[in-house]
Amino acid sequence: MRSDNLPRNRIVATALLALVPAVAFSQSFTVKVENLDRNGNFANAQVYNDFGCHGDNVSPRISWSHVPPGTKSIVLTVHDPDAPTGGLGWTHWSVVNIAPSVTSIEKGASGNATLMPAGAIETLTDFGNSTYGGPCPPAGESHRYVFTVSALSVASIGVKPASSPALVAYQMHGNIIAQAKYVARYHRTSQ
């Protein structure tokens, strides 16, 4: 190694070492779903009340932390990948255009303007409503429900309450900075 490269190599090494603590101690974007039992299963309060299910259909409390820098809006989706729809799954809830300063959606917020974060929009689910639709798998089946909180690089996506889950996904495409996921479960024992 030539001696004239030593100062430059030391500067580069020092700069890299200065970055290590920030990377090593940064906390990851996470999501938490409350109102579930200790095994991560939905309570009857969150279960859908139709299609043979007899729950209260109350949206759970969802919170997230460590939103990445540069986030301009948040999108929450709840999707059942196990639904018998030929591999497409089933969207149970979608809330878009949540301000990046918001860190939770309160229990029972769906359909309640005073509890829903200001400016947030609930869009269509696969039940055909623009509100939360709880779990309701076919009798005898256990399904996963993936809660995804997406940090976006745009302040809003061009959707309305009547927008489909596919349009929400399309508008998010290319704008996702990071995602945090939580998987809850529900087993339906009978009709």
Automatic annotation (TrEMBL):
Residue runs in coiled coils: none
UniProtKB keywords: Signal
InterPro entries: PEBP, PEBP-like_sf, YbhB_YbcL/LppC-like
Domain of life, source organism: Bacteria
Signal peptide location: 1-26
Transmembrane segment boundaries: none
Keyword Heme: no
NCBIfam families tied to this protein: YbhB/YbcL family Raf kinase inhibitor-like protein
Name by which UniProt lists this protein: YbhB/YbcL family Raf kinase inhibitor-like protein
Lineage of producing organism: Bacteria, Pseudomonadati, Pseudomonadota, Betaproteobacteria, Burkholderiales
